[in-house]
Write a structure and sequence with these properties.
The complex is a heterodimer of chains A (about 270) and B (about 300). Chain A is built from eleven helices and no strands. Chain A has two domains: about 40 residues; about 220 residues, Orthogonal Bundle (MetI-like fold). With about 270 residues, chain A is an all-alpha fold. Chain B is α/β, with parallel strands linked by helices and about 300 residues long. Chain B has a single domain, classed as Rossmann fold (3-Layer(aba) Sandwich), CATH 3.40.50.300. Chain B contains eleven helices and ten strands. In chain B, the strands form two sheets. Chain B has a six-stranded mixed sheet with strand order 6-7-8-3-9-10, sandwiched between helices. A four-stranded antiparallel sheet of chain B has the order 2-1-4-5, with helices on one face. In chain B, helix 8 crosses helix 9. The N terminus and C terminus of chain B are likely disordered. The chains are: A mainly alpha (about 270), B alpha/beta (about 300). At the A-B interface, helix 7 and helix 8 of A face strand 6 of B.
Chain lengths: ~270, ~300
């Protein structure tokens, strides 16, 4: 009996832990809605939350939004694929071969200090304002987090494990596949998560400066017509897509690092 | 037929108490096709090794007969691990030769297996795949052989686990299985029990002894525990002042125990010899005095 009451209070505590964190956002939303309704908050500053929901709904129904989302997602993913694979390849190369490190690493470290967004004027001159400009910027943005983490991941693989594997007759590709690559994977995935966050930042800036389609184009267009509700829809979409990318990379970590003590409980529960 | 044999073996190893009574000599080696004469003969001549200014081994000569169990003891930093690593081929000697059955070491490197102080299991591979690491698939089913070796160390039921969930002793048993699955003719043990608690150590000692008796490989154990050396080895070597300072044959009947007649006496004698001031013995005095001042930081990574 005491056990059941304990479990009941435990359950109540769990519910409380779930509800309490949502109280503040809900309160803010309610205040915001009221402020807009009573005219304390101009529509030019912020639309009422309900208007944002309606705008979201109409844009979703008309299919216009999905087109923009698809365009932006395609840009983000292709840029990520291009920059990420290049970074992975170069990181593996410089991490594994001393000679490649001496040749390339200091150059790459120098380039790393240039913020990709500072290149926008140059990029517009080079590529104009079409897709290749955005592809270039996103690739550049995702390159360095993945490159640096891959490099350090390879370098920080436990030397004892490599020694063991060599003494068990592993050399060349088998050694790489069974020991070095999995050993570097945690660091590589950290780089992937960083670059996924960066990917959206770069894309947002690139799209708001120059685009004929995409979420950034949609919001900039709406700004010209003072449609603050559509602007907010755009911002929300970016947030959602960013969250989605983060969840995806977390899922990858869970699967690939399921051997890791840090993920063990999750793996056992699954 | 195969599975029947396997069951017999699991039964024999079922509890660690029965390990001691496991059917010992003459059991055929089934992990890999039997090679002629299981144990390898090792001959080291004039081995020398220095790290920078500091000499670790000087002109060391060593003969190990096929199937012999030799333990190397000595103070920490005396070079016992270095000797093992030279024989394992993990480090290059500055001088001298190592012969394996009269041939070169390199030609037999796949017949030598090493157990480290830490188990060095790959954390991203499940226990079974760790044991199967580096096995040649052309010699038969890799997983079947790995499972067989796991059963020999009594961990058949942990095949699907991640190394992270195993205890220290279990990890070392997996490492032992990983070494055994290659049917080594020389097993090198670099303080593999150093980090284990007392009870687990005794279990592991018995397990290693019974597997050694069954497979008849040559074993070379580095340990700082003289009791462990006396319990396991046919011969105990003491390394001191860069040389083999003592080569003591242990004639006690197996399985040995600490209450056996003569055990304590032999252990005490070797221990006394280890503890007697090394600096007081002429030969290595200068080297040690000079080295100990300069090379204390170097000592930790060197040995």
């Amino acid at each position: 009996m005491s056990a059941t009451s304990a479990s009941r209070s435990e359950r109540r505590a769990r519910w409380r832990d779930r509800i309490v964190p949502t109280l503040l956002p809900v309160l803010i939303l309610v205040l915001w809605e009221l402020a807009s309704r009573f005219g304390w908050l101009s529509n030019r500053v912020l639309p009422e939350p309900w208007a944002v929901v309606k705008a979201f709904w109409t844009l979703a129904l008309s299919g216009e939004m999905w087109q923009h989302v698809a365009t932006s997602t395609w840009r983000a993913l292709s840029g990520f694929a291009l920059g990420g694979s290049l970074a992975l390849g170069l990181g593996l190369l410089t991490g594994s071969l001393r000679s490649a490190e001496t040749l390339l690493d200091s150059t790459l470290q120098m380039l790393r200090n240039i913020p990709p967004l500072a290149l926008i004027p140059l990029v517009i001159l080079w590529f104009g304002i079409d897709e290749s400009a955005k592809l270039f910027l996103v690739s550049l943005g995702v390159f360095f987090p993945i490159y640096i983490n891959t490099f350090h991941g390879i370098r920080s693989v436990d030397k004892g494990l490599i020694e063991m594997a060599r003494s068990y007759g592993l050399t060349g590709w088998p050694l790489y596949r069974h020991v070095i690559l999995p050993g570097a994977l945690p660091a590589i995935l950290v780089g992937v998560r960083f670059s996924l966050g960066f990917m959206w930042v770069i894309l947002i800036v690139a799209e708001t400066i120059s685009a004929q389609a995409g979420i950034g184009y949609m919001t900039m267009n709406a700004r010209e017509f003072l449609q603050t509700d559509v602007v907010l829809v755009g911002i929300l979409l970016y947030a959602l897509l960013g969250k989605l990318a983060d969840l995806l990379s977390k899922g990858l970590e869970r699967w690939w690092l399921r051997w890791h003590p840090g993920y063990q409980s999750a793996a056992n529960a699954a | 037929m195969m599975s029947y044999e396997l069951e017999l073996e699991v039964a024999a190893l079922g509890g660690l108490t029965s390990v001691r009574a496991a059917p010992l000599a003459k059991a055929p080696m089934r992990v890999e096709p039997q090679r002629p004469g299981s144990g390898a003969a090792i001959q080291a001549e004039g081995l020398s090794k220095t790290y920078g200014e500091r000499g670790v081994l000087r002109d060391v000569n060593l003969q190990i007969a096929p199937g012999e169990f030799v333990a190397i003891v000595g103070r920490s930093g005396c070079g016992k691990s270095t000797l093992l690593r030279l024989i394992a081929g993990l480090e290059r000697a500055d001088g001298g030769t190592i012969r394996f059955d009269g041939g070169t070491r390199a030609a037999h490197s796949n017949e030598i297996r090493l157990m480290f102080q830490d188990a060095r299991l790959l954390p991203w591979k499940r226990v079974l795949d760790n044991v199967a690491l580096g096995l040649d698939p052309s010699l038969g089913d890799v997983r079947e052989r790995a499972r067989d070796a796991l059963a020999q160390v009594g961990l058949a039921d942990r095949a699907g686990d991640w190394p992270a969930v195993l205890s220290g002793g279990q990890r070392q048993r997996v490492a032992l299985a990983r070494a055994l699955v290659h049917a080594p003719r020389l097993l090198l043990l670099d303080e593999p029990l150093g980090a284990l608690d007392a009870l687990t150590r005794i279990e592991m000692q018995r397990l290693i002894e019974s597997l050694w008796q069954r497979h008849q490989f040559t074993a070379l154990l580095v340990t700082h525990d003289v009791g462990e050396a006396v319990a396991l080895a046919d011969r105990v070597l003491l390394i001191e002042s860069q040389q083999i300072a003592l080569d003591e044959r242990i004639e006690l009947a197996r399985p040995r125990s600490h209450v056996q007649v003569g055990f304590a006496r032999q252990e005490q004698r070797i221990l006394d010899r280890v503890l007697s001031q090394p600096a007081a013995r002429g030969a290595g005095r200068e080297a040690i005095d000079a080295g100990s001042v300069l090379a204390v930081p170097a000592l930790r990574w060197a040995i």
